[in-house]
Design goal:
alpha/beta; Rossmann fold; 2 domains; 6-stranded mixed beta sheet; 16 helices; about 45% helix
Length: about 400
Amino acid sequence: MKSIVLLSYNNHQKKFFQKLVNIIESRKGKYKAYLLTSDKVFIKSIFNNKKYNFLNTEEISDVINYSYLKFKVRYKLQDDSPISRLYRKILLFKCRLMEAYLYTFLKDNNVNLVIVWNGAALEAALPICLARKLGIKTIFMENGYFPGTVVMDTQGVNAKNSLPRNRDFYENLSIDEEKLKQLKGINPEYRKLRGENKLDDNVIQKETKLLPDKFIFLPFQVHTDTQVLINSPVIKDMEQLLKVAYQGVEEFNRKHGLDYRLVVKEHPSDHGRIDYSQLKEEYSEKGVIFLKKIPMKEVLKKAELVITLNSTVGIEALLYGKPVLTLGDAFYNIKGITYTLQDYEDLASAINCALKDEFNRELVDKFLYFLRYNYLVESSKNDTSRNDERVVEKIISVLEGKKYVWM
């Protein structure tokens, strides 16, 4: 009997993973599934008598990296701060403590597959690191980019996922035109994000009137998200992102005698958590327009270009037929589909090409089609009353050694 472990570190994951465990366990005699929660693992680790230093110092540092960076950014601390140093020591202690228990659990239960959500936080990164070193298969899960889907990838999520990055792969795809039509008809802005309240029609109308005739759109991202802290090698916060984008747009305008405005929208999950008032005051005087409540689709429909680090807004923009320029590591950094800064002398040059080149609708459609119908897995994650057999089938296929068709 093969064994599967699903590890959760919040209630949403716990509910979803418990549903998957129940489905797996219903297939009596074939597979054994365990659900471990991070709090229970930590408590059991305290009373675990066995001690192992199975992971080396470099591996442990990698495991705690995101949790440490997130703490520093949240509390605006530097590496040399006594609080930062203390917190890092706490993370190292917690990691070593949990390492011993998880190592024992994986070995004693002959675990064949470890499943986590996202994989960056210490509570998920640790079992993944142990699993890989022990030769145990892994699945990373994450919210999908379209309604009713989830990511399930054996390599990672976002910039670390297994999606092909070569243009030829997508050019050679065959697609079902009817399914493509359905894809174009969906609303990708389907998840209610933290910080989003009921939309105020008056505020939306007011913000809609602020949109100029010609503008470049810059969506902010969650300031503590892995996409910013891990998958953006150069730009590490929204202040720096705005500075770089503004300078690039201004230089582009100066070189070409144009007057494109820069429009910024705050991420809903940062409402009430980050105060951008000083940033707004500084850049509003320079002509930058700041939005907060207007639906994303209303901005995307009118924008002529979207500049982003690596946000999923880039996927939404492609769906609306808008060129996308990325400043960070993104899984959709594919020539012919998006523009990346490293391919150009400077940002102004990249903006110029993105605006003047013809949008490759056929190639983009094939990429989006493959993303939705081949890569993502249909799921009713947020509805515990509905079945998730397709997710379980993907779990079983990975467990039994099935490879992705594109690998």
